[in-house]
Amino acid sequence: MIHRIASLFVLVGVLGCEGIQDRMMERAAQQAAQDDRVEWLDDGALHVVLCGTGSPIPAEGRASACTAVIAGGHFVLVDVGPGSYNTIGLHRLPRAHIDSVLLTHFHSDHMGDLGEIGMQSWAFGRAAPLRVYGPPGVKRVVSGFTTAYGHDTGYRVEHHGADIMPRAARALEARVIALPKHGESRLVFEADGLAVRAFSVNHKPVTPAYGYRFDYKGRSVVVSGDTAKSANLVRNSQGVDLLVHEALAAHMIEVAQQVAAKAGMKRRAKIMADILDYHTTPVEAAEVASETGASMLVLNHLVPAPPNAIAERLFLRGTADAFAGEIVLGEDGMHFRLPADSDAIHREMLD
Ligand SMILES: [Zn+2]
Ligand SMILES: [Zn+2]
Q1: Confidence of residue 208 (pLDDT cuts 50, 70, 90)
Q2: Which of 129, 253, 270, 277 is a Cys-bridge partner for 171, taking CB atoms 3.0 to 4.6 Å apart?
Q3: Ligand nearest to the CA of 81
Q4: Which pLDDT value is given to residue 31?
Q5: CB atoms inside a 10 Å sphere around CB 317
Q6: Is 99 helix (H, G, I), strand (E, B) or coil?
Q7: Given pLDDT bands bounded at 50, 70 and 90, which one contains residue 59?
Q8: In whole angstroms, what separates CA 245 from the centre of its chain?
Q9: Which helix (H) or strand (E) holds 47?
């Protein structure tokens, strides 16, 4: 007990020391002033960072849907769910260089941070308008965010000056992707060795809903967006290196649904029953990975987000029987580096 009281006095003494406070502040400022990871833009590798692996259900440490792809001088975001800008900033992704956002569909958990991404990337020095690609309907979405952020754009130009905050660079440019029928993909853009394609997936009644494929110097990644198990995704993802696929553990949600029903929580029970039919179970995602010949399966949009190792095992139950490759439960801040013309996939958690 005496020891504890003594250490408490020491702690209070340390906290009260102004020299230590000042040094901490200086260190924090030095960390904040560190450059963004601009070297990733053109180091010959395909980089993928999970900026949001959650869903509409709040989860500790997880933003909603967002996946960053960086290669060939381009920084592209697939979906920008609520909280994703925070993850991008915390991990010092090269914000001023975001050139495109690809929306998979218009559920709020996939686009809630579009306003913040547009505003903050501009504040950080984005020098050209931000292209926002998506299914038909994207113009209305972009127009709404532009209107909502209109006052703030004006404040910043006035406060910092048009040299620092040029209005022309602030714009969000809506680009509609209309897909051919019969499940074929369409090239969204191809530049500097990076080719991006869109294809339809099955998220009915949300139509259309897209997945995206990126190819760069012999390496590839597919981001599924929200979908039930999709034969068209399999068709458009053949031979992919990294498959980032959504997953809803139906065997876990069904238990929660039954508990809610028994407790008389009709609204919650109904919604839980409804969501089962337009997502993919972890075992189905593993089957998809197997059918595409993917090297690695990364699960995101985790419903429910497993809070501990036991829940993670439960979430992944049966997946190893369906896919022989590595299966990764995605976490915010997880970085995959795929060097050009190689089979390697390096994985790390960013600081
Ligand atoms: Zn959705
Ligand atoms: Zn979603």
Answers
A1: very high
A2: 129
A3: 2
A4: 73
A5: 14
A6: strand
A7: very high
A8: 11
A9: strand 45-52
Helix (H, G, I), strand (E, B) or coil at 217: coil
Instruction: Provide mean pLDDT across the span 308-318.
Output: 97
3-class DSSP state for residue 170? Answer: helix
Q: Quick check: 332 and 63 in contact, CB under 8 A?
A: yes
* Fold observed for domain 37-349: Metallo-beta-lactamase; Chain A (3.60.15)
Rounded CA-CA distance 315/329 in Å is 9
**Strands (E) located in the chain:** 45-52, 66-71, 74-78, 98-102, 130-134, 172-176, 186-191, 194-203, 206-216, 219-223, 242-248, 296-303, 326-329, 334-339, 346-349
- How many Cβ atoms are within 10 Å of 312's Cβ, its own excluded? 13
Place of tokens 């593993």: 286
**Structure tokens, 149:** 């952020």
Distance (Å) from CA 104 to ligand 1 centroid? 8
DSSP E strands in 43-129: the ranges are: 45-52, 66-71, 74-78, 98-102
Residue written as token pair 């809903």:
209
Percent of the chain topping pLDDT 90: 85
Q: pLDDT for 78-129, tens place per residue?
A: 999 999 999 999 999 999 999 999 999 999 999 999 999 999 999 999 999 9
What is the distance in A from the centroid of ligand 2 to the CA of 312?
20
Neighbours of 185 (CB within 10 A): 19
| Separation between Cα atoms, residue 155 and residue 135, nearest integer Å | 32
In the chain, where the domains are located: 37-349
Taking each helix axis from N to C end, the angle separating 18-32 and 2-16, rounded to the nearest 10 degrees, works out to 60
Report which bound ligand comes closest to the CA of 202: 1
In eight-state DSSP terms, residue 318 is T
Active site residues per annotation: 109
- Give the Cβ contact number of residue 113 at 10 Å: 29
Task: Name the nearest CA neighbour of 209 among 120, 125, 280.
Answer: 280
Task: With CA atoms as reference, report the closest residue to 297 among 314, 278, 280, 275.
Answer: 280
Angle between helices 150-160 and 114-123 (to 10 degrees): 10
Ligand 1 centre distance from Cα of residue 158 (Å): 38
In angstroms, what is the span from residue 208 Cα to ligand 1's centroid? 11
Q: Can you tell me the distance from the alpha carbon of 182 to that of 185, in angstroms, rounded to the nearest whole number?
A: 9
Q: What is the mean pLDDT of residues 134-152?
A: 98
